[in-house]
Structure formats: C-alpha cells, structure tokens
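RECORD TYPE: protein structure
NAME: Aromatic amino acid aminotransferase apoenzyme
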Amino acid sequence: MFKDHRAPAPDPILGVMQAFAEDMRDGKIDLGVGVYRTADGRTPVMQAVKAAERALLESQETKGYVALSGDPAFHAAMRDLVLGGVVPSDRVAALATPGGTGAVRQAFELVRRVRPEAIVWTPSPTWPNHLAILDGLGMKRRSYRHYDAETGGLDREGMRADLAEVAAGDLVLLHGCCHNPTGADLAPDDWRDIALLLAERGAVPMVDLAYLGFGDGLEQDAAGLRLMAGALPEMLIAISGSKNFGLYRERVGLVLALCDGPGAAAAVRGTLAWLNRQSYAFPPDHGARVVTTILTDPALRALWEEELTGMRERIDGMRRGLADALREASGSDRFGHLAGHRGMFSLLPATPEQVETLRREHALYMIGDGRINVAGLTPETLAPAARAIATVLR
Ligand code: PMP
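PREDICTED:
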C-alpha cells in the first residue's frame, strides 16, 4: 500500500522552527512561528489558567464523556465573549472542536454538507492552512484581494471589485482581527460595507477569530464581526482559544453558526454534533473547561483580562519599536506602515531569496513569504533585527 507513497510537502512554518532550533549561533532571532513570547522568549502558562486548573483539580469528580458538541457552559461563555449579546442565543448553534483549526475545518465541513456547490472566497493572502483544508475537502475556492503590498494596508478597491462577483450561497472568509499574515485589518466601515454587499448578494460570511484581544482589546476586536452578525441572517465564526488563553496544546476551539431562526439553529446543532461524532466523537474538554472557569469567575476573568492586556501591550510596544528602529536603520519611512498593523504579524516586502539571506547571514528567521511575528522581538533584538532587515531589503 505505501511502497510508492509520497508525503505532502511539510508545513513551511514547522520547517522554520526546526532550522531555528538547529542554528547554534548566538544572537539568533526567531520571528517565525506564530506564538506569543515574553521579553525573555517564553510562552508561559497564564496565571488565570493555572488558578482555573488548580480549582478544577480540586472540584472535578469525573472524566466521563460530556456531549458530542462539548459543554453547553463553554458554548455560552464563549458566545457571550465573542458576540456580546448581539444575536439571540436561540439563533446560535455551537460546536466545541480541537482548536481553532478544528473549528475552521468543521465550519467548512458544515458548508460542504449543506451546500456542496458553494464557492469559498478567501482573502489574499491568508493563513495557508485555510487553503490546505479547503483543498483537502475538495471544496471550490476563489481568492479576493485583501492586502496592498505597495501601501502595506488594505486593498479596498480590489477587495470590493472581487467580492462584487460573489454569488448567492457562497461563503466569504474574513479574519476577525489581527490578520494572519499581513496584520492589515478591516476598519469598521469595511465591515459595514462588506456586510451590505453580502446581504445584497445573499452570501454568507465566515469569520476566523484566532487572536481576539491581541489587536486593540476584547471589545474593539469583536466590534467588526458583531456589526456583521447584527446585520445578516446567517454567519459562521471559527474561534481559537490557543493564543488569548495561551492554551495552544490543549486544543480549545469553537464553531458558532448564526442561523436565521431557532428552527434552523436546532437543525444545524444536530449536523454539527454529527460532524464531531464521525470525526473524533467528543471534543477535548480540559482546555474548554479552563476557559469556562475563567470567563465565569469574576476574579479569574479580571486576572485573565489583565494578563491579556499585558500581552497586547508588549506586542504593540515591539511593533512600534520595530517601526522606529527600521526608520533609523533604513533612513526612510518605507516600513512605517508596520506601526499601523494589528496583532502579532506583519508581512515584509521580502523575496524568498531575501528571507534566506536573512537566515543565512543574520540568523534572523521569518516565514518564507516575509511574515514576521513581532512577539518574537525583545528590546535587545529590535536594533539588530532592524539593521538586518534594512540591509537585506534595500
Ligand atoms: N486561524 C488562524 C488565522 C490562525 O492563525 C490559527 C493559528 N495559527 C488558527 C486559525 C488555528 O489555531 P489553533 O488550531 O492552534 O487554535
């Protein structure tokens, strides 16, 4: 069976991780993999998570199965965090999944099952796994312009022109905040415009929300998708708890399907549960329970929000620091747009060869398309990183 088998190309991000680990040079800088890091390079367990885990260790009496869709208390806590009450709960179907990746996959699976002919529109560029999952599922996809490499901001005209071709029943994927890989987010007016366009065309938005709280704050980062949720009859949301709760390996994820009415929501709930059942039956529970404990305990929630604010402020400080250091190192404003990006990522205008040169000659690691994770920077590495980038990206 496997004699002539060829594995798919390895994930380029994991390749960067491995090359960095094997690099023995002092002063190497890792702006590759998309995890949050402290100034001393750690990805620690949050204090709120530790406290919730301690409480669970004491109080949990069983590890028996929960439900195919996951814990209803987890659904409710996350729904309220993300939607803030803009959609009545009887219109919302929820499904706990293994991580945000699981949520993205099950949301696409739902669409494939309900409307196999739908075209899924993805922003260009997007998180590469969106495309890999869609291709793996054999779904039709098209891309729409999102990023303007000239300005380092949104390509509003291109986006509008491309989305004008969306047909009734198509699915349009949007990043809720902190766009991966560009850092270029939609402004409130963009959310409003796209909501209007999708309403006109009868298409459905799907929002991938992997970085809630990493942009401008919990409320601010959810504002765009709430606006859209309030304006349209249907919408899908794929949520990850990996970054904002630091629960990467516990695999915390959730699909929210906003439906036209309670009847449709009940049917979608059944289909979502069925999707979990025939994939892996019950979703992971520990991380979800930790999140629910934090969100429903006022003291733990306050602690979590404080820690999240600390992470966001560090990311933002490194982002502004890098923009300043690049201005100094390059003697120009050509990297000035970095300061306006949101979240951990920005896309540098680097060719694959320049990315390779940065690795080889400066021990500076980023993803092959020029994506950097600014959370990999520290006050000490800002200047050397900026000098390397300014030297190679002349
Ligand atoms: N969506 C986007 C845009 C992401 O960047 C990520 C994380 N890299 C995910 C979803 C999924 O994250 P996870 O499966 O680790 O929760």
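COMMENT: The chain has 13 helices and 13 strands.
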